[in-house]
Write a structure and sequence with these properties.
Layout (H helix, E strand, L loop, with lengths): L2 E5 L3 H14 L4 E5 L2 H9 L6 E5 L7 H11 L5 E5 L4 H9 L5 E3 L4 H12 L7 H14 L4 H11 L4 H7 L4 H15 L4 H11 L1
Parallel strand pairs: 1-2, 1-3, 3-4, 4-5
């Protein structure tokens, strides 16, 4: 890995990370920016990077939205995600969206550098503990569509079919059908048991 672009809305964090990496490996040229727009500006200027690292939680355009935007314009650009969160649904969304890896901000220096090198070389990287959670999530909930997953969260929050339909701006019958579908797919006998299963798996 020679060139790295880090996008984090906390520019001080991104700059500190860039500095740390350059100290650990003098061959690494790391640049920090504070938005997806700045990332695209660098790419539009003709700059190339072995790896772009996007923070998930950024204002206006979060990391997953940024991932989609960049891949639409620069499909061959390698992009990894960086976040303080390790929710399996977010990780799955990122990997399905084309991210080459997901890095928790809690990673220590040497493992982080190793992970960045692996991703820059084209290898997928997800920390073992995050991968285990992701596999459990996929095994249990991987058959749910994105809409069904939204419905599942609301069922777990205790909302009625009518409230779910209203919140997701869908017809009441459609809401009921989605609830019925997730119960069938999960094998739960009723919505109460489903809610318990879902909350325990998150």
């Amino acid at each position: 890995m020679k060139t790295l672009l880090i996008a984090d809305d906390h520019l001080m964090f991104g700059s500190a990370l860039a500095y740390m990496l350059s100290q650990m490996d003098p061959d690494v040229s790391a640049t920090a920016v504070e938005s997806v727009a700045k990332v695209i500006a660098h790419l539009e200027a003709g700059e190339t990077f072995d790896l772009i690292l996007l923070d998930y939680e950024m204002p206006r355009t979060n990391g997953l939205q940024g991932l989609k935007m960049i891949q639409q314009q620069y499909p061959h650009q390698t992009i990894g995600m960086l976040s303080g969160r390790t929710d399996p649904q977010l990780v799955k969304s990122a990997i399905d969206g084309g991210a080459i890896g997901w890095l928790p901000k809690s990673m220590s220096e040497e493992p982080l550098l190793h992970a960045l090198r692996m991703m820059a070389a084209g290898g997928q990287f997800i920390p073992k503990e995050v991968l285990e959670e992701l596999q459990q999530y996929v095994n249990r909930w991987g058959d749910l569509t994105s809409t069904e997953m939204e419905v599942a969260k609301l069922v777990a929050d205790g909302l009625s079919d009518k409230e779910i339909a209203a919140q997701l701006d869908m017809a009441p019958n459609t809401g009921r059908n989605h609830v019925r579908a997730i119960l069938v797919k999960s094998g739960a006998e009723n919505r109460t048991k489903f809610a318990v299963m879902f909350r325990e798996s998150m």
